[in-house]
Design a protein that fits this description.
Layout: E1 2-8, H1 24-39, E2 46-49, H2 53-66, E3 73-74, H3 83-88, H4 101-120, H5 131-148, E4 153-158, H6 160-171, H7 175-184, E5 190-195, E6 200-207
Parallel strand pairs: 1-4, 2-3, 2-4
Antiparallel strand pairs: 1-5, 5-6
Protein name: Histidine phosphatase family protein
Pfam families: His_Phos_1 (PF00300)
InterPro entries: His_Pase_superF_clade-1, His_PPase_superfam, Mito_Ser/Thr_phosphatase
Length: 223
Amino acid sequence: MGTLYLVRHGQASFGADDYDHLSELGQRQTVRLGEYFAERGVHFDGLIAGTLRRHKQTLEGILQGMNHAGEHLAWEGLNEYDSEAVIATVHPEKLQKPSSPEMVRHHFRLLRDGLSQWMAGTASPAGMPSYVDFVAGVAGALDHVRANHYGQNVLVVTSGGPIATAVGHVLGTRPETTIDLNMRIRNTAITEFAFTPKRHMLVSFNAIPHLDAPAWRDWVTYT
């Protein structure tokens, strides 16, 4: 039996011109997660990450917190969908930067609607693969882990969409459920699978034990 730890990236720069880099808090979250792994003696035999900047920065922070160095496998199939392209399929006008809670809620309502249509095959966001191909990219990473890391601990750093897709793929959930999972994943949350050469089995979802103390209560974020 092996163990796969899927980790969502640290807090990125929601609402900024360039979302794809960690905020200062996001960087601290990643180092804290690495410290948590080190405190519990968790080591990794395999390191895999998406190719986005926030994925690389998150992995670097985790390794810093573990006081560990290592090469990782870059996997494009673990990259997040383009939320702006998804929203544009249901709201062609460019959204203003969210500056209030209501604007944030409006953003995510549109995102949910766009995801539903993309997953149903009725919308094709510009520059993105079909949902079938997106799932195949995530499933390919899971297949790689099973084929190459049986009996080992593997860390995968990615985004909320691929993590929800992995859970949905393993459990056979409906698209609506996968979207619900996606919307609730917290930054640097751990989703754990046990795996054999034949299958993955969900052990835990969206856990943040490294932030489970009053000192880190304000470090819990979703974007």
